[in-house]
Design a protein that fits this description.
This protein is α+β, with helices and mostly antiparallel strands. Helix content is 14%, strand content 30%. It has two domains: 96 residues, SRCR-like domain (Mac-2 Binding Protein); 252 residues, Beta Barrel (Thrombin, subunit H). The strands form four sheets. A six-stranded antiparallel β-barrel has the order 15-16-17-20-19-18. It has a six-stranded antiparallel β-barrel with strand order 9-10-11-14-13-12. It has a five-stranded mixed sheet with strand order 1-2-3-5-6, with helices on one face. Pfam families: Hepsin-SRCR, Trypsin.
């Protein structure tokens, strides 16, 4: 039997060539790591930009605000400004109003400045984003603001004529209303809260200033009360924009600021068929090509008849550059309006749709919701080529709507109000 001999350990010599190979390998691995980190960071930021920068956590109702400088969400530390902060936060997110607010204690004891924002101003200014009044802090109390905003923009029912459109189904557009004067349909409108409706200023010329003769038909796809879901509400107040120029001089060809709101005499009870739509978030921009739904009881042809059943149609938002071109509307379209439709026409809003909603769905608040992006305002003919429907850009009037609701909540009659 022979004995196995053990060899002595080999010494590895690091030649310049091997050193270069190791260096390049480490450099490559480091580069891959950096690349992966960059991709992950990009994806996180891309996800963040898909949400609005103010959110209410659905699990614990805590108000959170995104810190774009450090790329993280922060809770808002409780302060003496909780009530107004809750109200403005809900408005900023498009929820119209806060139903309740409270405080919640951070049980984990975390008081890291990376986790909180604190109020750094003595007074909040409506119309501005709350981020302008917040700064990172340690939140010595460990108590954060919780908020319950009015829900909006969601259908309770799961079931899934505008020119070229189709008949709608009951409960599909639960914020749509018919504004009726002496029992006759005049305009459309949109529920935004249990008291307030948004419509167009041009629906309220002087001959329609007898507020007691207005009624709002809700919860129906018909212009008459033919279903048990229907509710007819009395109108207490109408407020329209005082700078809607055709009311000042009928010869002026400028339909800017074509917006109005109505207060109901009594608060609504929301049902499967009666629900509010969300408003745009503060500063929300309109995306070219974004599809929206326009609904109403307007004529199905320019010289046609108004349908008995609510109609709906889907049209894309047209860029300002296209809509203000000479082939379209040139300078008639201002920065308080936008256009939606197709180059060849065929699908459009028409007479009788005025004041009604142009809504689009998004996930800015995590949950998918419909927002009132536009109010049917005007157009040349109906469904003509390169003459799309023109809508009041609601995002431009959020401060006006908020101010009008506060100032005229208990002031009956028809009123005009300038910019907020």
């Amino acid at each position: 039997m022979t004995e196995k001999k053990h060899g002595s350990p080999r010494m590895v010599v690091l030649t310049p060539c091997r050193l270069a190979t190791i260096f390049l390998t480490m450099l490559l691995l480091g580069g891959i790591g950096v690349a992966v980190w960059a991709v992950v960071t990009y994806l996180i930021k891309a996800e963040d930009t898909g949400l609005y920068e103010v959110q209410v956590n659905s699990a614990n109702l805590r108000l959170t605000v995104f810190d774009s400088t450090h790329g993280r969400w922060r809770y808002v530390c409780s302060s003496s400004s909780n009530q107004i902060l809750a109200t403005i936060s809900c408005e900023e997110m498009g929820f119209v109003r806060a139903l309740n607010y409270s405080v919640s204690t951070m049980l984990d004891g975390s008081k890291d400045s990376e986790d909180f924002f604190c109020m750094d101003a003595k007074e909040l200014i409506r119309g501005k984003k709350i981020k302008e009044f917040l700064s990172p802090c340690t939140c010595a109390s460990g108590e954060v603001l919780t908020v319950i905003c009015q829900d909006c923009g969601r259908r309770s029912l799961t079931e899934d004529r505008i020119v070229g459109g189709e008949e709608s189904k009951l409960g599909r557009w639960p914020w749509q209303v018919s504004l009726q004067y002496d029992g006759a349909h005049q305009c459309g409108g949109s529920i935004i809260s249990d008291r307030w409706i948004v419509s167009a200023a041009h629906c309220f010329p002087e001959r329609y200033h007898h507020v007691g003769r207005w009624r709002v038909l809700l919860g129906s796809i018909y212009k008459t009360a033919t279903h048990k879901s229907v509710h007819v509400a009395e109108v207490q107040t109408v407020v329209f924009h005082s700078s809607y120029l055709p009311f000042i001089d009928p010869t002026i060809d400028d339909n800017s600021r074509d917006i109005a709101i109505l207060a109901l005499t009594n608060p609504l009870q929301f049902t499967d068929y009666i629900q509010p739509v969300c408003l745009p978030t503060n500063g929300q921009r309109l995306a070219e090509g974004k599809m929206g739904a326009v609904t109403g009881w307007g004529n199905t042809e320019y010289y046609g008849q108004s349908p008995d059943v609510l109609h709906e149609a889907y049209v894309p938002i047209i860029s300002d550059a296209v809509c203000t071109s000479p082939e379209y509307y040139d300078s008639q379209v201002t920065n308080t309006m936008f256009c939606a439709g197709y180059e060849k026409g065929l699908i459009d809003a028409c007479q009788g749709d005025s004041g009604g909603p142009f809504v689009a769905e998004d996930t800015l608040a995590k949950t998918s919701r419909y927002r009132l992006l536009g109010v049917v305002s005007w157009g040349t003919g109906c469904a003509q080529a390169k003459k799309p429907g023109v809508y009041t850009k609601v995002s431009r009037f959020l401060p006006w709507i908020s101010s009008a609701m506060r100032n005229y909540e208990n002031v009956p009659g028809v009123h005009k109000m300038a910019r907020a």
